[in-house]
Design brief:
Length: about 250
């Protein structure tokens, strides 16, 4: 500004599009949720939990979209009323689709095919046709989550497998080199154990109590024996200390 070259503007409000905008919005909405007695989940980013007596309420934050659910409809409606008074928001009603989870069964296939969009060939077209036939044949399929958990098993199973460099397209992103199928299966078991612990911590933060431990299932007898009783013999001595985590 002419005549005030030695002065600078002080930004009183973060404008949309600036680098500071996401951070400022996240801090603003987080302070508001904390004032409403929500606790920030340290295991999963963007998840807030509030427990009042036997009533639970969850809020999932994704950029500027909010997903709220809970065990008490009155508390949910009251939360919506308060947040719409604080911010300019629109209630979109009941949840129908969430982050593409309605097509979770074909997510991997679609991602794999999308890698070749700039150079499609006949095998890729045939793969897309298989996905479309699968979608047409499973239109009436779905998952039913009972409101009362007594009729649903509370056990959680994890299935892990590794084919030891059988996928040529993904082989280049392998984080560690396995020298045998036993090592490949054992390392996959380790990754499964890490995911199981993360899920256990997340469920505990969400006030979901479980008595039974998670079960990890693998289909390699050598890897199972190695996990139960690790012995530094010729086939396993190349495994470092990092991969003995699954013993616990």
């Amino acid at each position: 500004m002419t005549g005030h070259e030695n002065k600078v503007y002080r930004l009183k409000k973060v404008l949309y599009g600036l680098k500071q905008a996401p951070w400022a919005w996240n801090r603003r909405i987080e302070c508001f949720l904390l004032q409403l007695d929500f606790n920030k989940c340290t295991t999963k980013y963007g998840v807030y939990v509030r427990a009042i007596a036997c009533d639970l309420m969850f809020v999932c934050l994704y950029v500027d979209d909010l997903l709220d659910t809970g065990s008490n409809t009155t508390n949910i409606n009251e939360f919506k009323r308060k947040i719409m008074l604080e911010f300019e928001m629109i209630n979109l009603g009941l949840l129908t689709y969430f982050c593409g989870w309605n097509l979770l069964d074909i997510t991997y296939g679609m991602r794999l095919i999308s890698r070749f969009m700039d150079h499609l060939r006949v095998p890729h077209l045939l793969a897309v046709k298989k996905i479309l036939r699968y979608m047409k044949g499973t239109l009436d399929y779905g998952l039913l989550f009972s409101k009362h958990g007594r009729s649903v098993s509370n056990e959680i199973y994890g299935y892990y497998d590794s084919d030891w460099c059988g996928d040529k397209s993904d082989r280049k992103i392998t984080i560690v080199v396995a020298l045998s199928s036993c090592e490949a299966e054992y390392i996959a078991t380790l990754m499964g154990a890490c995911q199981a612990l993360w899920l256990e911590n997340l469920m505990s933060k969400l006030k979901i109590r479980r008595e039974e431990p998670m079960k990890i299932l693998i289909d390699n007898k050598s890897a199972i024996s190695l996990a139960k009783s690790p012995v530094a013999h010729g086939r396993s001595k190349t495994l470092g200390q990092d991969f003995t985590f699954s013993e616990t």
